[in-house]
Design a protein that fits this description.
Elements lengths: L11 E7 L2 E7 L9 E3 L1 H7 L8 H12 L5 H13 L6 H16 L2 E2 L12 H11 L11 H4 L24 E4 L4 H18 L4 E7 L8 E3 L3 E2 L10 H11 L14 H14 L6 E7 L2 H6 L9 H15 L4 E6 L4 E2 L11 H19 L3 H9 L10 H11 L4 E9 L5 E9 L1
Helix pairs in contact: 7-9, 8-11, 12-13, 13-14
């Protein structure tokens, strides 16, 4: 074994049941390995000591002290070698693996559809059928009224949308949509995107997404078009470059976070479905990771000067451009249960508590008050693990004065890992 002090990378761990046994599963949120490793019993105990501080001899001694039995040196080395081969150890071989994967991504002209065939159907006709189905009542909002959403080629902007029996409807300026896998929360997307399709004339969509793996920088832009089974969602590179210049910070230092992050990908797919064959739209993908960092430091997001500079730059770039812009936050809400580190499965009473607390939090969202939203999460140390913390704050901060309405609230009620989400429309 080449590494004298084996160190497990910062990967995701969560409890699972496998063949009647309780295990800990390891998975890489950075996407440098597709493998999932299951650990239990003595194997789990050994791997828990792969912290970069214990030698193989130290691990042998620890197991002997706890259980009075000797684990052969070669057994520990083979465990470390197997984990290293799969990309789970922080090692020289992993550094080589990462360098190759990163270089391939940076050289690609597009950002690949990383979750096609997983979080959503990977074939175009099947994907369209899946998305069509999300609009069907009772879970969905009903089909899109296409005549109001259609822009005629060569005839200028589409007419203002009109509500049946009423005057012109207010234009939708932004939406919050989930980023949960389509098969778990697909209809909730439809409640947000139906409004966007019918009541927005935007041809540029700024998409704020959660970076689940965390980032060195608060924001990450990319110039790469987002590929999808329905065709690419093209990026407005001129807008991205102008935004990066005005922001006066490194907006591409964490660009690699876009490679496998799904929070923007799932929005880009939906936009392509809505507008791909109807009008020319472009996107500005913005991964965000600053709200939790501020909370853990006991500060507010704008205390980091890079955060307000970015929002000022975004407002200036929108004002300087000639496009109609709408904002999207790809954001889920609570993450509760053993899957996310809680000791007990989630029962009906806990589900009701989560909904009550989410509903109270969403009042600040509907009021478009970013500071009240931030405090509503920070006040209890984010005990529900709101993973849309940064993108929701970014959307509210960027909208300024607006009125929001929760169109749909939902939960994926797995007792081992509940995820909640909401669709919110802003006028």
């Amino acid at each position: 074994m080449s590494e004298a002090l084996p160190r497990l990378r910062a990967v995701e761990s969560f409890p699972v049941e496998h063949e009647g046994r309780s295990c800990i599963a390891l998975r890489d949120p950075g996407g440098y390995t597709d493998a999932i490793v299951l650990l239990h019993g003595p194997l789990l105990e050994i791997v828990s000591l792969f912290d970069g501080e214990h030698t193989v001899a130290d691990i042998q001694e620890a197991v002997m002290h706890r259980h009075g039995r000797l684990v052969q040196r070669r057994q520990i080395e083979e465990i470390a070698e197997a984990l290293d081969e799969q990309g789970f150890l922080d090692s020289l071989s992993f550094a080589d693996r990462r360098a190759v994967i990163d270089a391939d991504y940076l050289a690609s002209p597009t950002r690949p559809a990383a979750h096609a065939g997983g979080a959503y159907a990977g074939e175009a006709s099947e994907l369209r059928g899946m998305l069509d189905g999300f609009f069907a009542p009772p879970d969905g909002p009903g089909p899109i009224d296409r005549p109001r959403a259609r822009q005629r080629e060569g005839r200028g902007r589409p007419p203002a949308p009109v509500r049946r029996g009423q005057g012109p409807a207010p234009e939708v300026r932004g939406v919050i949509a989930p980023h949960i896998d389509y098969h778990r929360g697909g209809p909730a997307y439809a409640w947000a995107y139906r409004e966007l399709a019918e009541r927005s004339q935007a041809d540029l969509f700024v998409i704020f997404g959660t970076c689940h793996a965390g980032m060195e920088h608060p924001f990450a832009l990319t110039r790469k078009d987002y590929a999808s089974p329905l065709g690419p969602a093209p990026v407005d590179r001129e807008f991205v470059d102008a935004l990066a210049r005005r922001a006066r910070q490194d907006c591409f230092g964490s660009e690699l976070a876009h490679r496998v992050e799904h929070s923007i990908e799932l929005q880009a797919v939906f936009l392509r479905y809505l507008f791909g064959d109807r009008r020319d739209v472009r996107i500005v993908p913005v991964l965000a990771s600053f709200a939790h960092e501020a909370m853990h430091r006991g500060r507010r997001p704008d205390d980091d000067s890079r955060v307000p500079r970015f929002f000022d730059a975004l407002a200036e770039t929108i004002a300087a451009g000639g496009r109609r812009v709408a904002l999207i936050a790809g954001a889920d809400l609570a993450h509760v249960g053993p899957r996310f580190g809680d000791p007990e499965p989630v029962g009906p009473h806990e589900l009701a508590r989560i909904e009550r607390e989410d509903t109270a939090m969403l009042e600040s969202v509907e009021a478009c008050d970013p500071h009240a939203f931030f405090e509503s999460v920070a006040s209890n140390g984010d005990r529900r693990r709101i993973c849309g913390y940064s993108p929701i704050y970014a959307l509210l901060r960027s909208l300024g004065s607006a009125a929001g309405r929760v169109k749909r609230y939902g939960q994926w009620p797995d007792p081992n890992g509940v995820v909640s989400f909401a669709s919110v429309v802003f006028e």
